[in-house]
Design goal:
9 helices; four-stranded antiparallel beta sheet; binds adenosine-5'-triphosphate; 283 residues; single chain; Rossmann fold
Amino acid sequence: MEHPLIHVEHVSKKFKKEAALKDITFSVQAGEIFGFLGPSGSGKTTTIKILTGQLAQSSGQAFVLGNPVEQIDESIYEQIGIVTDNSGLYERLSVYHNLTAFAKLLNVDKKRIDLLLTRVGLIDDKNKLAKDLSKGMKQRLILSRAMLHQPKVLFLDEPTSGLDPVTTEAIHELLLELKENGAAIFLTTHNMEEATKLCDSVALLNDGLIVEHDSPKALTLKYNQDKRYQVLLEDDQELTLPHTAASIEQINRWLVNDELVTIHSCEPNLEKVFLEATGRELV
Ligand SMILES: Nc1ncnc2c1ncn2[C@@H]1O[C@H](COP(=O)(O)OP(=O)(O)OP(=O)(O)O)[C@@H](O)[C@H]1O
């Protein structure tokens, strides 16, 4: 296996006496979207801060692009992108000039600016000042800025929270493109649908501990103990059947008689997996 672009080994973080992260370990490879899922206060932002050199861990080791996080300096920002609450914008500059400032710093062709602004739906607002943007527009500008230089590693703290479905979809497409180009994407989200759709693997974080770590599909199958099937019949009846020999026979009869319109297995979603694994709700 190639060297991971993000590697975290037994990292813990204490704030005074309170443990915010307890011995967490994971890796993110090139071309992987990794979802970090957990309720408020579980340690997601703390992890991003450690990985981006804004906060020191109390113990353990972490590496980004092969560099120990303790050694992160400005030069790494040419290769990584960060989207967090505190990703500041130049409030008095326009949308466009916020991006040209970064394009210059990061040696990016200015043509990419218009392309990105179009993709995130900000092209008609390119001359607006950052201070006059709505929250969602600011978020889109911060995202464009983080993706401007097609970073090898991208950290996103709740990237689509508060965005409308159309913009969210556009952002998802951009993230999938970056992934296709080999970026490692670390994403925190409360949104389980987003995680299921985008992430190759997810870690469920509860009180600073990773309680599960696998692909969304593997996790939903693992927690699918009470197997059931949902069927829709020709006469509009909708039924949920347990996984028993009698049900299978019944389903077979419907099939033979051409009475079955749809059939689905009922795996739990990630929200239910989280509840099962931790005994608490995700949000
Ligand atoms: N600078 C700090 N000083 C003291 N405690 C802190 C500090 N930063 C975070 N914490 C604590 O660490 C824990 C984890 O916080 P963190 O911000 O990482 O959570 P989170 O999962 O990102 O939550 P949210 O989804 O609400 O952003 C919380 O108990 C928080 O109070």
